[in-house]
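Let's do one together. I've listed all components of the complex below, 227 residues spread over two lines.
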Amino acid sequence: GAGVSQTPSNKVTEKGKYVELRCDPISGHTALYWYRQSLGQGPEFLIYFQGTGAADDSGLPNDRFFAVRPEGSVSTLKIQRTERGDSAVYLCASSLTGTAYNEQFFGPGTRLTVL
Amino acid sequence: AQSVTQLGSHVSVSEGALVLLRCNYSSSVPPYLFWYVQYPNQGLQLLLKYTSAATLVKGINGFEAEFKKSETSFHLTKPSAHMSDAAEYFCAVSVGGNKLVFGAGTILRVKS
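Okay, and this is what the predicted structure of the assembly comes out as:
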């Protein structure tokens, strides 16, 4: 079946602009996660959704970052007033129930470059 | 706080040789541990996971890992490396919640 998909695969923007990154999880998966992977580092947790609600947003670096999942499926990560330091690969993952031992299935990521 | 340390950002082995990628974790409670592999321009793929059922865990592509509580380790091994194993490998821990905390990754190079 279809895996986790993310669009766009690449996004280049200018400092100060607004961007939206989209994630389509595996159908039926109630849990959805966003991570950020900077060059040479492992993924870092940003936010976790269970259904439509953000169950844990402790990883969002500041109030410029916001994410929604209005219908409990597709999620959008929104970044306002982008900064060069936001450049990274943004990864989305989904899992069946969100239990700690469940496998998280990752998408290919969106590479964001802020000029 | 839970954390993961992967010793060696780069590991190079010859084809057919043993692969050993090291992972140590820090956790105040029994952890769930994972190894993921990332091929170039692809998403992370689960290799194996430890969920306390057995200390020796077998995964895909001939990889296995052993959970050693006394050493707080979860090293990844494969008896014989193949060229197709060249990738970046991440160890991760999930404790008491739903997010994964990843190590910095180890890039495995396989020489012919």
